[in-house]
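Q: I'm building a small set of examples for a reading group on sequence design. Run inverse folding on the following structure and report the sequence directly after it, with nothing in between.
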C-alpha cells in the first residue's frame, strides 16, 4: 500500500509545532504555510524540508517544541557522518518509543519466554536504553551487555542461554565468526538476531544465519526519529513495515526533490506525527529505498519500505559513473567462497584519472578475475580487486565505514 498522510493528524502536529517552537514556527512562516491551511493530502508538499544540518546547528532546547521542564531525556547520534545530532524526549515520547520497539520485537517473534542480549551502546547513543525498554515491555529477559567486549558477549550468550541477539550487522557478523571459529554453536540457544544501525546486504544475512543458525530481522531507525524501532521486517523478509501511526513516509528524487511513484528508488523523507519534544517536518534522512504499492501478504496494516540500499550522500561518482556500496553487496552475495565484508577505495592519480579498488575477504586466490568481471558488469566501471584474509577487515559494534574517498575534490 502507498503511504498517504492523514491531513487531520498532520494539521494537529503543525499546530503543536507552531505554538511550541519558535524555530519551527519560523520555518513554517518562511514557507508561507499555516496549520489551518492543511486540508488535503497534497498539502504535505507545501511544507519545507528539514535537514540534518539544521538539527546539528540548532541547539536542541531552541529547536524543541515543548518547555524545557517537559523534557525527560536527551540522546545523540553516533556522529558517524559528522557532528552529533542531539534530540530530546518527553515522557510521552519515551512511552511511544517503548511501544514501537516492542512492536518490532513482536513482529520478529520475540515473546516473554525469550532472553534478549543487547550488544549495542548505552548512554547518549539512543540504541541501548531504547531497546531495553521495549524488551521489558514485551516481558522478555534483558541481558544488557552493551557494545564491544567480544569475549564477554560470547560468554554471556552461553551462560545466560540468550535466545535473541540485538547488535549492528557488523558486530553480529564478528560474533558469528568467533562462535564458528571456536565451535560454540552447539552450546548456544540463539534463534533470532535483530540488526540495524547500518546498511547490510543479503550476503551478510546469509553468513550470519549460516554461522549462528538464527533468523535475522532488519530494523530501521534514526536518532532523529526516536532511535531504532521505526520499523522492522516481518517473517516474510520482504520490506520493512513502518509504523505509520507515528510517521508519514514519502520517497523523493534527491536531485529534483519531487515525489516518485511507489516502487521507484529514491530518498526517504519522514514527518513525525506524534513526537512532542523534537518533531520533524519532512526530514530528509538521505537513506535510499522505495515504497511498496501493495499490502504485505503477512496481513500487516502498516506500509512497507524496501531495505535501505545506501545513502544519497554515499553516492560517489567515479569517471562519471555513480557508485553505491550496495552494488558490491549484490555481487558478493552471488559469489560462493567470498565473504560479505568489503572496503571500497577511490583514488586519483597525478594525471587526474580516478580509480576504484574493492578489498574483499576470501581464501580463493583465483577469485580476482571473476570478481572484476562481475563488478564491471554490475556497476559499469573497470574496478580493481584486492583480496585480503577472511576476518581481516574491521567489524564494529557501531557503524562500519566501507567507502573511502581519497581524492582531493
Amino acid at each position: 500500500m502507498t503511504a498517504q498522510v492523514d491531513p487531520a493528524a498532520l494539521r494537529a502536529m503543525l499546530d503543536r509545532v507552531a505554538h511550541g517552537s519558535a524555530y519551527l514556527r519560523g520555518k513554517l512562516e518562511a514557507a508561507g504555510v499555516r496549520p489551518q491551511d492543511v486540508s488535503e493530502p497534497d498539502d504535505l508538499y507545501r511544507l519545507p524540508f528539514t535537514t540534518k544540518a539544521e538539527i546539528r546547528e540548532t541547539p536542541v532546547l531552541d529547536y524543541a517544541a515543548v518547555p524545557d521542564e517537559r523534557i525527560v531525556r536527551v540522546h545523540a547520534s553516533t556522529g558517524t557522518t559528522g557532528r552529533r545530532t542531539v534530540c530530546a524526549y518527553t515522557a510521552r515520547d519515551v512511552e511511544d518509543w517503548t511501544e514501537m520497539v516492542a512492536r518490532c520485537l513482536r513482529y520478529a517473534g520475540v515473546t516473554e519466554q525469550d532472553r534478549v542480549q543487547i550488544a549495542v551502546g548505552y548512554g547518549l547513543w539512543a540504541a541501548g536504553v531504547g531497546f531495553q525498554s521495549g524488551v521489558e515491555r514485551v516481558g522478555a529477559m534483558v541481558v544488557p551487555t552493551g557494545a564491544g567486549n567480544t569475549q564477554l558477549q560470547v560468554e554471556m550468550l552461553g551462560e545466560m542461554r540468550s535466545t535473541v541477539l540485538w547488535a549492528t550487522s557488523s558486530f553480529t557478523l564478528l560474533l558469528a565468526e568467533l562462535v564458528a571459529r571456536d565451535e560454540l554453536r552447539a552450546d548456544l540457544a540463539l534463534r533470532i538476531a535483530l540488526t540495524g544501525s547500518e546498511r547490510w546486504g543479503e550476503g551478510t544475512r546469509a553468513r550470519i544465519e549460516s554461522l549462528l543458525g538464527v533468523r535475522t530481522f532488519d530494523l530501521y531507525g534514526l536518532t532523529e526519529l526516536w532511535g531504532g524501532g521505526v520499523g522492522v521486517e516481518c517473517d516474510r523478509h520482504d520490506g520493512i513495515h513502518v509504523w505509520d501511526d507515528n510517521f508519514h513516509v514519502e520517497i523523493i528524487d534527491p536531485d529534483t526533490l519531487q515525489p516518485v511513484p511507489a516502487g521507484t528508488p529514491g530518498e526517504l523523507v519522514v514527518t513525525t506525527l506524534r513526537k512532542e519534544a523534537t518533531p520533524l517536518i519532512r526530514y530528509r534522512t538521505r537513506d535510499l529505498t522505495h515504497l511498496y504499492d501493495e499490502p504485505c501478504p503477512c496481513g500487516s496494516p502498516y506500509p512497507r519500505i524496501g531495505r535501505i540500499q545506501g545513502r544519497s550522500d554515499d553516492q560517489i561518482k567515479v569517471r562519471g559513473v555513480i557508485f553505491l556500496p550496495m552494488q558490491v553487496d549484490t555481487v558478493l552475495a552471488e559469489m560462493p567462497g567470498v565473504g560479505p565484508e568489503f572496503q571500497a577505495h577511490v583514488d586519483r592519480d597525478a594525471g587526474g584519472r580516478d580509480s576504484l579498488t574493492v578489498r574483499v575477504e576470501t581464501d580463493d586466490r583465483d577469485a580476482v578475475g571473476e570478481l572484476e568481471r562481475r563488478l564491471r558488469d554490475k556497476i559499469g566501471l573497470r574496478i580493481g580487486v584486492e583480496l585480503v584474509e577472511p576476518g581481516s577487515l574491521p567489524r564494529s559494534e557501531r557503524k562500519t565505514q566501507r567507502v573511502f574517498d581519497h581524492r582531493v575534490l
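Residues 91-107 form the longest helix (17 residues).
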